Amino acid sequence: MKYFFTDKFEGVSQGAYDSFNLALHVGDEPSFVVQNRAILSEKIGTENLIFMDQVHKDYVEIIKDKKQKIALQSDAMVTNLNDVALCVMVADCIPILFCDKIKNVIGVAHAGRSGVLLKIANKTMQTMIDEFFCDISDIQVYMGPSIRSCCYEVREDAIKGYEGYMSIKDEKIFLDINRKCIDDMLDFGVIKENIEISSTCTCCNDSYFSYRRDGTTGRFCGVISL
């Protein structure tokens, strides 16, 4: 099993997408994105990269064909196929990777404010359990760089469901969606020691694309393969 989270560097995109943008839907020159994905393919060690048409919902796609290029209207994927890399694109949302090394099953999830409320991480793991007979105690979770509570300011109408995961600073409301997601996974039965989380805030750290910070920007990626 191999996994990692990309950053902004070592690609060919220009301007606001400088340089390792992996998204085709953000206004970047498509040929640059294709080149960047080829670089990613070489880094992860397979030509079979599978991306998602992410829509901030909770549908989990089961990947059964290694030649599939995209999972439509999906925010999570799982597979037990070798020589396949599952990719989740973000620019502040949480990129979550899953692995069961006993059953040889991997998954990814795109968890923004809506996805966390919909428990997209738990639903991804439930699919691993239902489809591939994974045991929750064997599932490893890797949460990549994302916007943290230091920067995730919201309006009052966005706090529903996060009442226990908000803080007030200078009369402004900030959410901690990472902590909410972790608590939900622990309630689901994930072993605490099996959760690895990046402390990097994408909005603070200019090594990562951040929609909140920049508006027009690229997308970095969490990627995992067996």
Number of strands: 14
Form type:
globular
Calculate the mean pLDDT score and round it: 97
- Using only C-alpha atoms, the radius of gyration works out to 17 Å
**Parts with pLDDT < 50 across at least 5 consecutive residues:** none
Largest sheet: 6 strands, mixed
Please give the count of helices: 5
Distance between the termini: 4 Å
How much helical structure, as a percent, in the residues?
10-25%
The SS-based structural class is: alpha/beta
The amount of beta strand, in percent, is 25-35%
Strand line-up across the major sheet: 3-5-8-7-9-13
| Secondary-structure element pattern, one letter each | EHEEEEEEEHHEEEEHEHE
Oligomer: single chain
Question: What does it look like?
Answer:
This protein is an alpha/beta fold and 226 residues long. Helices cover 22% and strands 27% of the residues. The protein contains five helices and 14 strands. Strands 3-5-8-7-9-13 form a six-stranded mixed beta sheet. The longest helix is centred in the first third of the chain and has 15 residues. The mean pLDDT is 97.
Any key phrases for this structure?
single chain; 226 residues; alpha/beta; 6-stranded mixed β-sheet; 5-stranded mixed β-sheet; 22% helix; globular
Concise structural overview:
It contains 5 helices and 14 strands.
Topology diagram in text:
Layout: E1 2-5, H1 30-44, E2 49-52, E3 60-62, E4 70-71, E5 76-79, E6 85-90, E7 94-100, E8 105-111, H2 113-117, H3 120-132, E9 139-143, E10 153-154, E11 166-169, E12 172-175, H4 177-188, E13 195-197, H5 211-214, E14 220-225
Parallel strand pairs: 2-4, 2-6, 3-5, 9-13
Antiparallel strand pairs: 1-14, 5-8, 6-14, 7-8, 7-9, 10-12, 11-12
